[in-house]
Amino acid sequence: MDIDTDTLPAFARGCAVLGSGGGGTVAIASVAAMQALEDHGPVRVVQAGDLDPDLLVMPAGTAGSSAVMLERVTGTEEPVHLRDKVEQLYGTRVGALMASEIGGANGCMAVAWAARLGLPLVDADGMSRAFPGMNQTVMQLRGITPTPAVVCDERGRVLVIEHVTGSWLERLVRSSLEAFGGQVASTEYVLRGRQVATATALGSVSRAVHLGTELPAPLITGKIAEAVDGILVEGLGADQGRLVRLEAGSEFVAVLEDGRPLACVPDVIALIDTRTGEVVQVEQVRYGLRVSVVRLLCDPIWYTPEGLRLAGPEAFGLTGLHSPPPSPPGFPCRAGTGEAS
Amino acid sequence: MKAGVDVGPTNTDAALLDDDGRVLATVKVPSRPDMPVANVRSALEKLKATDLTQVAVGLRGSATSVTRRRELRRVAVLRISGDSARAVRPLFGWPADLRDAVNAGAVIVDGGGGLERDDWTPLDRAAVSRFAAAMAGTAEAYAVVGLFSPLDAEQEQEAAELIRAEVGDMPIALSADLGSLGLLERENATILDAALSGFAQTVADGLGTLCPGAAVFVTRGDGTLMSLEHMSRHPGLSLGSGPASVLRGAGALTGLEDAVVADVGARRVRVGVLSGGFPEEAVGGARIGGVPVGFRIPGLIKVDRPVDDAELAEAVDRLQPGADRLPLVTVGGGAQAVQQGIHPEHGLAAGAIGAAVSPVGGFYERIVRLPDRAAVAAAMDAVMEEARAVAVLAGADPRQTVIIHADETQLDYLPGPFVKLRARAAGPPSRW
């Protein structure tokens, strides 16, 4: 499979869905990806099993404020700076790029950068969705060291971070953001081809393309009945009479009906504007909007005890909640793929 | 006495109001295509108004020019950002025919700013001069867009001086004048302002001689007015002004500050929201000719005629800001075709009345880094002062210009306490 200018719109929409209402808007990143694909041609998507065991795989993405990205729409040279420093640190060539985070802007950014570097893009990512912390990755759970990590800006100012744990990486990168003016590009958890199959979320790129055109049946379709003091969705049509509450931080993290969770982080929770088909981000929710609420499971590793500790309900301040069983009867969503069954 | 004129595609409406805002008369004349000034003249003649002190006009010419790719100047685009913003080049994603009609050439030169003073990169002055010289003879206008220029316009002004030194007196649109952060939208808007500058100047000259003795203003998409001089520099601000005036007029005729308004036209109904006396903005801003430009325009839901009652009810319901229902006001030339809502007297001329009663507006936005919450108030004072200054620049009476809206948004994922502050000011039109 390739990502080209024809498949990019579906891929970008899938990335927006996997953002779970956050992860930064794809509006600018998808245009950057479009320009990169026009300038450099399609990006080849490769499967984990086809990677040379020793191939150096560079996960990459941006961190920072989406308000800054609106102005600093990113440059063309960040992936070059990251790759050059990684090659110097590891003493070997980078053979493939991977999205650190498929959900939101970073999924699209990975396509732009793979195109610019002329590298294949691995059909995987570090999260299988968007998470707020850069250490909330499958690589972290699988014991891949995050460092040496490289942080840079568009002008090639490069910072190398060594000998730290995932939470220290998060802490150091966040504090460097201020000095970098609110936005950085970064690579961390660099890995080898042989590690990709077990230490990443597999199938993320093809899943995003698929979700861009086809979503599972919604949990509820209705209208936003309250948007100021919490978010309520009141059912319409076949869902008339139902009322669900959404919990949200920078992402949607839970859907509750009569106090029972219909979905809960690490599930992906996406809101789709039923009139326009657009993916609705947390900050775009307003009274009266007609929406479908869609639940997608994310990579099975996030439902293990270690996964839940790093990115489960309690990591988002939700106590006493848990994701409902992954495959209730008739629930048209399979773990790890999100494909309709 | 003051007059409001709304130049629509089919008809031009005009309204005469006394100084207390009472409607004395309304008239309707057929619109002749592509003759906005003549249409205003006919409507004012039919109104038989004497001793007018103020005329406010709503025009749709800017949007029409762009959608028809007509009367557009060729623009040289200078982006000051260096490597910080190369991922999307100027004019990328524009419809090819619009880009061909407008683009004289584009370049990205080094320079540009950031959130703080230390983030700034010096302007590559030589590159600006080279580009300006290379564009001489091809470009009919220049658009200058600096990274983070709404925080500090100095480099844009420096570049404009360098361009003038190379090519003499030329229309130069600066993006900082548009205020809002969002490089691509601000750049697109600046390019359109430059492209429309010839058309806008012609209209401004025509309107300026129409009513000697009266101060003449034009409407804009946020429901306020601007002077002809301001419009000739920022014609894009008039996008969305038609619906905005209708919303304002519906408010003036009913005395409501908050309402859902259905504007019933010949072919469709446009439903929008009046919030605190002004139109609620569209999320995501305006697109023109397929290009996102970020101008503040009313958020509307359009329902085709003949009107399906259920569809209209859903549109009205979608626009309700909360569970407490706002009243529906039904206005516009076809208002009698819709049963629902309050039908105020003179509602057929709501657009012209809205133009006549609106104040002159100004908007300002900036991102600031504050040591603590206590510093918000002082920073907000500065932002409100800027908004007032912008309104005065657009033609508001400085003695009576007040802040009509101010808000703050905390920015995510930044370690420091960065806050986006926005303020809107409005004042009655200055007579001088």
From TrEMBL, chain A:
InterPro entries linked to this entry: S-Me-THD-like_C (IPR048350), S-Me-THD_C_sf (IPR024071), S-Me-THD_N (IPR010318), S-Me-THD_N_sf (IPR027479)
Region (Disordered): 321-341
Pfam families in UniProt: S-Me-THD_C, S-Me-THD_N
Residue ranges occupied by any S-Me-THD N-terminal domain in the UniProt entry: 8-162
Protein name as annotated: DUF917 domain-containing protein
Domain called S-Me-THD-like C-terminal: residue spans: 231-318
TrEMBL record, chain B:
Family matches, as Pfam families: Hydant_A_N, Hydantoinase_A
Record domain Hydantoinase A/oxoprolinase: where: 186-266
GO molecular function annotation: hydrolase activity
Hydantoinase/oxoprolinase N-terminal domain span: 4-166
Protein name listed in UniProt: N-methylhydantoinase A/oxoprolinase/acetone carboxylase beta subunit
Native source species: Nonomuraea endophytica
